[in-house]
Each structure stands twice: as structure tokens, then as C-alpha cells.
From TrEMBL:
Stretches the record annotates as Disordered: 94-138
InterPro entries linked to this entry: Pep_chain_release_fac_I, Pep_chain_release_fac_I_sf
Protein known as: Aminoacyl-tRNA hydrolase
GO BP annotations, alphabetical order: rescue of stalled ribosome
Family recorded in the similarity comment: Belongs to the prokaryotic/mitochondrial release factor family.
Signal peptide region: none
One Pfam family hit: RF-1
Entry superkingdom: Bacteria
PROSITE patterns documented for this protein: RF_PROK_I
Length: 138
């Protein structure tokens, strides 16, 4: 399966399972196994360790403890269209994991924005203090 121009994933690492789709649909949905479940063995693939870690983070609960990524598709009536949808989701997830995130650069707020923030806090404090009961005079 082609991911990018230079990257192809071995089909042997992808296992397809077909099940009955959930939800309404009557006789067709009760008889036909159109839902697709793709199981991609991430640990067994030749992806770099960084990409595997990013893929695990992106996948979340779709990743098993054994390092298998599970992608499901059951939105279409056709088994073939569900298969294509699941494969597209898998490739999109892998492509996203291939992109190295840009490191965050720490920034400081400008002096003017700090002054505005403090002035707003002061105004808010004054408004709230006016809501309190007056202090009794001695």
C-alpha cells in the first residue's frame, strides 16, 4: 500500500476482517458482512521508532498493547467502499505520523499586553469590591 512517493507498506502487515455493520438497515445489514476492520502491525513494520511513537500517540485507544493499529469503517453499504475508506484512514494516519511536529518556541507577552491585563484585573477587582457589604463605622 502506497503511503507517499517514497514509502510503501507491505500488504502482509495489514489484515482485513469483515463483520456485520452496526445500526439500522434491515435485512441487508443483518445478512451482509460489509463493515471492515483493518489491523496494521505497527511493531512489525519498518517505520522508524519516532514515527511509531507518533502513530501510537495519534491512534490512542485504536492501538492495542501488542502494537497493532485497528481502523474500522462501516459507513457505506458496500464492502468495497468501506474497505477503501478504512485504507484511506490508515494512510492519512500514517502520513500525519510521518510529519515531524514543529518544536514550540517559548514567547513572552509584550509589555503593553501585560499592562492591559493588569489594568483589566484592577477594574474587575474594583467592581467586585463594590458588591461587598459596607463595613460598619465605629
Amino acid at each position: 500500500m502506497r503511503i507517499t512517493e517514497h514509502m510503501v507498506i507491505d500488504e502482509a502487515l495489514i489484515e482485513e476482517r469483515y463483520t456485520r455493520s452496526p445500526g439500522p438497515g434491515g435485512q441487508h445489514v443483518n445478512k451482509a458482512e460489509t463493515a471492515v476492520q483493518l489491523r496494521f502491525d505497527v511493531d512489525g513494520s519498518d517505520l522508524s521508532d519516532d514515527v511509531k511513537k507518533r502513530l501510537a500517540d495519534l491512534a490512542g485507544s485504536r492501538m492495542t498493547h501488542d502494537g497493532v493499529l485497528i481502523v474500522k469503517a462501516h459507513g457505506e453499504r458496500s464492502r468495497e467502499r468501506n474497505r477503501e475508506a478504512a485504507r484511506e484512514r490508515l494512510t492519512a494516519l500514517i502520513r500525519k505520523a510521518l510529519k515531524k511536529p514543529k518544536p514550540r518556541r517559548r514567547t513572552r507577552p509584550s509589555a503593553a499586553s501585560v499592562r492591559r491585563q493588569k489594568a483589566a484585573k484592577e477594574r474587575r477587582s474594583r467592581v467586585k469590591s463594590l458588591r461587598s457589604k459596607p463595613k460598619p463605622e465605629e
